[in-house]
Amino acid sequence: MGERTPHTNPSILDESLMAGLKTPRRSIAESNPEIGRQRLPDSTQLKIIGTAYEQSPLTFDDAIEAAILVGHLVRQTLEFEDMDEATPLLTAELLAQREKANCYGYTIVASECLDQIGVEHYVGYVNQHAVVMLFDRTSGSKRSFLLDVATKEFYQETTKAVGGEDPLDQLWRGELRAINTLQTSELLRKVDIDDPGKRQKFINERFWLSFDKDSRHQDDDVYDYLLHSQLQLITMPSVPGREMLRLYHNVIINTLSNNPDPVAASEDIIDQFAGIYPDIDPRNKLKHAKALRTKLIDRHMGDSALALADVIKASLLPDDTSESRFFKGDTLRRIAKAESDPKKIDEAIKEYDNNNDDDDELFKLPPDNDEFLASVGRVVARKPVLSYGFRKTRLKRIADAKQDKKKIEKRLAKSSRHRTPPTQER
Question: Which of 23, 43, 230, 365 could, after both became Cys, cross-link 77 (CB 3.0–4.6 A)?
């Protein structure tokens, strides 16, 4: 079998999204004819920001100031829109035509601008949302800054909000991505909106801030409030981070849009996301991966579904003891039922058995509750007694798989009897 060619041409990923953009966007320029439009990469504003930064002492505060100004520039260049079923693929041509983007497009364009003017930064992914991150290299400093490009209220220092090992230490050690916690309640404390109704509207419009289903962020249960607002933050260097965001954006569109292309989505994930699939917070329940898996199996593409499962498995954190660990086993079972293949059930059972390490730890609260989540890869509950627990869930899946195998074998035996011609008497 020959080497597979990725569906997304690598040269497309090298294509700059900012290259075809003009600033300010048409809607602003049309309301004020005196404002001239310029290509964003060559714009006077970006040059001024770059020159000011270059001539500064190049402290972390100087980098923050430059990043904030770039954020404002991108907001003048693009109009924000949420992702939905009608969102097109993220390409330079379409972005220049529409001058509209979601958080992925905003973050990529801002990152390209920051690279052009020499500001060191990183790309962050948090609860299906994209941001720009800055970290202070000064020895002993733990300072960090978050730029949620489309939301000026979230141009904030996040030193107290980011938990876990220093992201720079993780990346310098050779990790492809740094994984930390982000406490969004710290961000919201700094948002200056006094009117309760307007403040709640601001929160409701930004689903990524919390896993609290009713999004009310009431103060009657501080523990639950903090637990739901502690998110998993994945950080990557700027260039691979931009590539990851662009690919993952298009994977989502090719999976869930009005005109899905699951083949393209699966090929991009399999070829580009080995070990770095971003949406691995167990509380999101691998939503997009499960939707893509269903489409692939429905198209009789079991091999692609299994390759997808391998990518997911390789991307999970070592101490993730959530149900995400069962994704590959569940995939094998689904393929087995679709293809009436009992051997695949045996493979699924073996896969479930391989998840037998520390199987009693799921949903147990850590002894040290300083950050409420001992590991961002592990879902915890306030009342662990209400949980099935990893061991019970694993054993139930094995039992269900054995029942699936019996049903498949019974169906195959019945089908075989119907195909066998009656014996003729001599």
Answer: 23
CA atoms within 13 A on the CB side of 356: 8
Instruction: Say yes or no to pLDDT of 217 above 60.
Output: no
Q: Which helix (H) or strand (E) holds 38?
A: strand 38-39
Q: For 68-88, give one letter per residue: b (16+ CB within 10 A) or e.
A: ebbbebbbbbbeeeebeeebe
| Whole-angstrom distance, CA of residue 375 vs CA of residue 91 | 36
**For the chain, what are the domain ranges?**
316-420
DSSP category for residue 380: B
Phi first, then psi, for residue 181 (nearest 5°) are: -105, 150
How many whole angstroms separate alpha carbon 253 and alpha carbon 249?
6
pLDDT single digits (tens) 287-323:
999 999 999 999 999 999 999 999 999 999 887 878 8
Give the H/E segment covering residue 196. Answer: helix 196-204
What average pLDDT is seen over the chain?
A: 86
Burial class (CB in 10 A: 0-12, 13-18, 19+), 236: buried
Residue 117 near residue 50 (C-beta atoms within 8 A): yes
C-beta neighbour count of 184 within 10 angstroms? 25
> 176: which 2 tokens?
């492809």
| Residue 19 backbone phi and psi in degrees, to 5 | -60, -40
Tell me, what's the pLDDT at 321?
A: 79
Element spanning 243, H or E: helix 238-256
Q: Which long-range contacts (CB under 8 A, 24 or more apart) does 131-138 make?
A: 131/103, 131/107, 132/67, 132/71, 132/107, 133/158, 133/167, 133/233, 133/235, 134/60, 134/63, 134/64, 134/67, 135/166, 135/167, 135/168, 136/60, 137/60, 137/168, 138/60
